[in-house]
Please model this.
Amino acid sequence: LIRRNEEELIRWIESRGWPENAFVRRGIGDDCAVCRPAPGHELVVTTDLLVEGRHFLLDTTPAADLGWKIGAANLSDIAAMGARPVAFFLSAAFPAARQDLFAAVMDGLRAILSLHATPLAGGDLSAADHCCFAATVLGEAPAGRALLRSGARPGDGIFVTGSPGFAGAGLRLLAGGWRKTAPDRCADPFGRKRPGEGPEWDCLQKHLRPEPRLAEGLCLRDSGAVTAAIDTSDGIAKDLRQICVRSGAGALLDDARLQALIDGDRVTLADVLGGGEDYELLVTVDPAGEAALLAGFASRPGFPPLHRLGRIVAEHPGEVRLAAATGEVPLPVSGFDHFRP
Ligand SMILES: [Mg+2]
Model:
C-alpha cells in the first residue's frame, strides 16, 4: 500500500515524466503555472468535475481507465472547439488509504496526455471520504477561428465522426455484469474470461477508453466549411439540440441514415441518439465546402468515418426532428441531465 504525505505525492507526480511544450514555461512547483500563448492565437478553456457515484463507479471502472477518461472527456471539449490542447490541470480528492488507486488514475491520465503531447501544468490535492476529480484544460486556436455551437445555418449538412452509440452500449454491458479485468481482457456476466477483441470488447473500450477526436477537430476547423461543432458527451439528440438552440435553427435527422449506425441488438437507436460519453464530434457543414471537406477527411490515415445524419432547417428552431417514412417526429429531449428532478 502506498503512503505518501502531500509533498511526497506532488514530487511523485512530477517524477512520473509528463509531456513538455513551449506553451507551459513553468508548470508544477510554483504558485501558478506560467504560460506563453503563441502570437495571434486565442486560448479556449474547459473545466470538468467528476464525482464518485455520480460520474463513475469504481467497481466497474478500472482506475487507469478512469484517469484516461478524465483526460479524454476534457480533451474532447478542446477538439470540439477545433483547438489544440496546450496545458492540463488536475485537482483530486480521495481517501488517504486509496493512494494506490490515485497512482493508477495518474498513470491512465499520463498515457492519454502523452499521446496528445499535453503537459500536466498544475493542480491541487486533498483527502476526502470519496473520490472527486476536477480537470481544467487550456487549448489554443488561431484568433477568431475556434469552432462554436452558434454558426449552423439552414441548408448545412449534419455529420458525426466515428461510432456514436458504442459507449452507451458499453455502459449497458457493464450494468449487465461484463467487466474489463485487464488492459487486454474482459469477463462476461458469468465470469468467463474473454480476450480483448470482439463486439462486446469494442463497446467496453469505447466507454472506458474513449478517443478524443483532436486531429479530426483541427482538420474540420482548417476545412473552413464547418459552421458549428460540439462533442457528443450527452447523446446526439441532446448535443445537436444545443447547436440548434445556439444557432436559432432546427435540425432534421434522416431516419435511414440513423438506421445505418445501428448494429443489431448491440448498438440500438436509443444508444445512437441518447447514449452519452461517445466523445465524437458533431458538426454542421456549409454545402459549398462539403465535397472538399469530405474528401480531405477521408484521405487522412487513421481518421474514423464521417457519417451524414441530416440537415439544418429554418423551421422549428431549437428542435431536433426525425424525418421518417411516416412523417416528421420531434425527438424527445433525451440524454443525461444531472439536475433532472
Ligand atoms: Mg462538450
